[in-house]
Amino acid sequence: MSNQEITSLTMVKAVIEALEDKKGEDISVIDITEISTLADYFIMVSGSNRNHVQTLCDNVEETLGRMGIDKKQCEGYESGNWILLDYHDVVIHMFDKENRLFYDLERIWRDGKRMDITQL
Questions:
Q1: CB 89 within 8 A of CB 33
Q2: How remote is the C-alpha of 77 from its chain's centroid?
Q3: Separation of alpha carbons 23 and 120, rounded Å
Q4: What burial class does residue 115 get, using C-beta atoms within 10 Å of its C-beta: 0-12 exposed, 13-18 middle, 19+ buried?
Q5: Torsion sign, CA atoms 26, 75, 54, 99
């Protein structure tokens, strides 16, 4: 599958599988296509500690890398309390539980459409 054939929704599904594979907690997806030009989807997930958050990040990068998708940017890997992976149309936020509660991106982006990941 070439990069042109890979839709942002296909990427979302692959990311969810990668996060579930490494026991990511409280995975949520927000469709922001109608409210922002930043991306199509935000994905949020919690990890239990720094190593877990970094493992989630590593697995997402590996999974998308095997699909031939390169990230635009990665921020916060060293600290491991909030890692942001930017794949242009899909942005993944991986938090420890404390920082996820503090930043509360789901509230900030509440105008987006929350997606039921079980339906993907």
A1: no
A2: 14
A3: 18
A4: middle
A5: negative
- DSSP secondary structure string, 6-39? --HHHHHHHHHHHHHHTT-EEEEEEE-TTT-SS-
pLDDT in tens, 85-109: 999 999 999 999 999 999 999 999 9
What order do you get walking across the sheet with 73-75 strand by strand? 73-75, 82-87, 90-96, 41-47, 25-31, 113-115
Query: Which domains does the chain possess?
Result: 3-119 (3.30.460.10)
Let me know: does 16 contact 118? Beta carbons within 8 Å: no
DSSP code of 101?
A: H
Residues 6+ apart with CB under 8 A from 116: none
Whether residue 58 contacts residue 71, with contact meaning beta carbons closer than 8 Å, is answered with: no
Alpha carbons 42 and 36: distance in angstroms, whole number: 11
Q: CB neighbours of 35 closer than 8 A, spacing ≥ 6? A: 109, 111, 112
User: For the residues 1-6, what does the mean pLDDT come to?
Assistant: 54
Residue 1's pLDDT band (cuts 50, 70, 90): very low
